[in-house]
Amino acid sequence: MSKYIATAAIRGANNIVEEADQLLQKALAEKGPDTPVQFPNTAYYLPVVYGFTGMEVSKLGDLPAVVEHAKKLLHPVPRGSLWTPYLGEALDCGVATLFAEEAIMGMKYALGEQPEKLDGHSELVTAGGEGYCNGPIDDVQLRAWGIQLVDGRMPGFCALIGCAKSNEVAVQLVRELQRRNILVFLSGNVNGRSIIHQLLEEGVELGYDTYIIPFGTDTISTIYPLGFATRSGLTFGGLKPGQARENLIYNKFRVFASALALGEIDDLKYATAAGAISYGFPAIADTVIPEILPTGVTEFEHVISMPFDDIEGKDDLERAEKLIQKCIEVRGVKVQIAEIPIPVPYGSAFEGERVRKDDMRVEFGGKKSRAFEYLRMVDPDDIEDGKIELVGPDFDEFDEGAAMDLGIVIEVAGRKMQKDFESVLERQIHYFLNAASGVQHIGQRDIAWIRINKMAADKGFRLEHFGEILYARFKGDPWNSIVDKAQVTLITDPEEMKKWLELARGVYSERNVRVAGLTDETVEDFYSCTLCQSFAPTHVCVISPQRLGLCGAYNWLDCKAAHQINPTGPNQPIPKGENLDPQLGRWSGPEEFVHQHSNQAVEHVTMYSIMTDPMTACGCFECMVLVIPEANGVMIVSREDPSMTPAGMTFSTMAGMFGGGLQTPGAMGVGKYYLTSPKFISADGGFNRVVWMSSFLKESMPEEFKAVAEREGTPDLIDRIADEREVMTVEELLPWLEEHNHPALTMDPIM
Ligand code: SF4
Ligand code: ZN
After folding, report:
1. In this predicted structure, what is the pLDDT of residue 294?
2. Which residues are placed with Cβ below 5 angstroms of ligand 2, an ion?
3. What is the best residue among 527, 531, 559, 670 to mutate for testing ligand 1's pocket, by most ligand atoms within 8 Å of CB?
4. For a pocket test of ligand 1, which of 143, 145, 147, 540 has the largest count of ligand atoms closer than 8 A to its C-beta?
């Protein structure tokens, strides 16, 4: 490591630890040692400190130990004439810096000074509130991204720290990252000006939905991304707090992160970078600095200097693109970009973008018009590959803000295509169209609702581009292994619309009947999903027609299609074998498969019981089902619910306890739609056992639960199930259930 950088980092570390110490004295004097120290909506305390040392900081009085620990890691600043440092010293100081920074943020939360308020930017709405920076990413969001990080759709994150050369460059940097589905984390400033200001001035939408998270305009808030990295090891990697070395190794190989320092670098930035380097995250600077060559701590170079104006390129936008390219190469990330011939940026980072009424050029479906989408398998000779046809007028013939009818018909052919896959493919339309910047897609089938914003229309986006997107995506990886030919027809002509809509509706109801008829008894094979083993090595999802994967992303048909697409992939058919216990849902096939593929960690597994050999849980379940013995029933907490539950734990706490590939009788992670299955814990009494459920679930699936209640013979069951609005403890739960005469109270004992 160059002496210059090492010296700066060591100096920065000494200063920030000193600052933490002083702030701590002040905070203790003002607020007292029992004042709570807590990052909001996370179960991991101060995550970097927790991950490295196992210390559970929850109040100001816990912080002196952290600051002491940081002090021990410090080294003196090398004197001018001496030249012996120093990677080791600088890295120790880097870790000390992270501890000090996290302690400072903990104190600031205790003092009400975090998250940071951005004056004059009420348009900024984040998890931190309206007009506030985000603060730490909450556990719910970490998990929501989890599955994408697991399956590689989201390659990693890039922290942009400081201030870009111009607003235009700032926007370009972010767009290049979004295009590659890389999470963008923002922090820091140069002389008071931050890339966060730059992006807000350019009207870029920041927040979880667009994958761009503004943490704060100071350097210290760069600690939040490192907390995020630490928590992903704890959440998905089955790592334990205090396993500092394992956590760093995990991050080095699993979490593809890099930092891009924009503008001048001061001592604190060097010190923070030294901390990030110990995670294996390299830093790239757009200014002239001495470089650090590979030594093995990071996989490639540690620090790279790429002075912005020296980058070859015809203009700043091209230079920005190359800079991002470098960040990605340095980290060794393989990123695929879908090249789609449309006039707007394209990538899943745009999926969450909304089109508000005022920005809208045209809409299809919703309240004022109708839109449907229908994908069908046809004979290869009946279609022309790549043909995109618009039947009827385009939207530029209509006024701004118009509502139009639209039908999207996709016809595909392929040797490995099956009728069953139509619905699997059709569901992709939502993701494919949403990924275009300026397009919002909601719903499916004949309740689709699509909006296009004015910016996209001004750039020349037209209906034919829906066709371009759909064709390119279905003919791209991985779908091209089942789709050999595809043709797209876009229909706005009223007569044609009517004809096709009727036809599509007929098919939708045929499909409904067919899916309802798909039961665990009627199929030969279940499917495995072992995608999450990269994070939770003993976890196997067994997926049957009546029980989908616990993340909610894969049902039986999806797995069947995925197996066709990739025969050696994570979704393998599991022949059911002998039915050992129909009540519990125990088959010889799944038992053997799970035993073998869990590294022999799991001996037995059942499909329908939470008490007897339940399925394992990785980190990404949509809901947690947990037995409440006192109530003779179970509670169901959804990922979206941050509140306290009668079990005395929040969702995050439970996820930490029961995830990571463990099998825990009495606890089970499940996908939402399993709750509505007749096989939902049927061995333990079924849905009538549910005594408490997050209100989010009740409100987001009212029709589905109504049907379940009727099927289970207690039509008003949902009203007799408590939720967090009235009941937060087990003491409150029992009288509430008696008052509402809940059926579980008179059922056989659950344990
Ligand atoms: Fe992970 Fe199971 Fe979802 Fe597969 S189905 S991605 S193993 S949670
Ligand atoms: Zn998982």
Report:
1. 47
2. 532, 618, 620
3. 531
4. 147
- Report the sign of the C-alpha dihedral through residues 458, 462, 466, 468, in that order: negative
Q: Distance between CA atoms of 309 and 287, rounded to whole angstroms?
A: 9
CA distances to 33, 512, 522, 537, 550 from 420, in Å: 62, 12, 15, 31, 22
Q: Residue 724 phi/psi, 5° resolution?
A: -70, -10
Query: What separation in Å is there between the alpha carbon of 621 and the centre of ligand 2?
Result: 7
- At 371, which amino acid appears? A
- Does 529 sit in the ligand 1 pocket, CB within 6 Å? yes
- Assign 3-class secondary structure to 567-593: CCCCCCEEECCCEEECCCCEEHHHHHH
Which atom of ligand 1 approaches the CA of 669 most closely? 8
Q: Which residue has the tokens 């992939």?
A: 569
Q: Which of 383, 352, 95, 349 is nearest to 230 (CA)?
A: 95
Element (DSSP H or E) covering residue 187: strand 183-187
Q: Where in the chain is the domain with CATH 3.30.1650.10?
A: 350-503
Residues 6+ apart with CB under 8 A from 701: 672, 676
Return the closest-CA partner of residue 541 out of 620, 479, 478.
Answer: 620
Query: What's residue 500's pLDDT?
Result: 97
Q: Which ligand is nearest to the CA of 618?
A: 2
What is the atom index within ligand 1 of the atom nearest the CA of 533? 7
**3-state SS class at 116:** coil
Decide if domain 3-110 falls under CATH 1.10.8.190: yes
- Name the CATH topology of 520-746: 3.40.1470
Residue 106 has which token pair? 């903990």
What pLDDT, on the 0 to 100 scale, is given for residue 637?
96
CB of residue 532 inside a 6 A radius of ligand 1: yes
Pairing of strands 129-130, 439-442: unpaired
Q: How far is CA 337 from CA 212, 477, 572, in A?
A: 18, 11, 28
The low-confidence residues of the chain, meaning pLDDT below 50, are: 85, 294, 299-300
**CATH 3.40.50.2030 domain range(s) in the chain:** 125-331
Among 344, 334, 295, 288, which residue's Cα sits nearest to residue 311?
A: 288
Is the alpha carbon torsion for 423, 425, 431, 433 positive or negative?
negative
Ligand 1 nearest-atom number relative to CA 151: 6
Looking at ligand 1, which atom is closest to the CA of residue 530? 7
| CATH class belonging to 125-331 | alpha beta
- Give the residue range(s) of CATH 3.40.1470.10 domains in the chain: 520-746
User: CA-to-CA distance for 54 and 66, rounded, in angstroms?
Assistant: 11
Yes or no: domain 350-503 corresponds to CATH 3.40.50.2000: no
Query: Does residue 553's CB lie within 6 angstroms of at least one atom of ligand 1?
Result: yes
Rounded distance between C-alpha atoms, residue 328 and residue 324, angstroms? 6
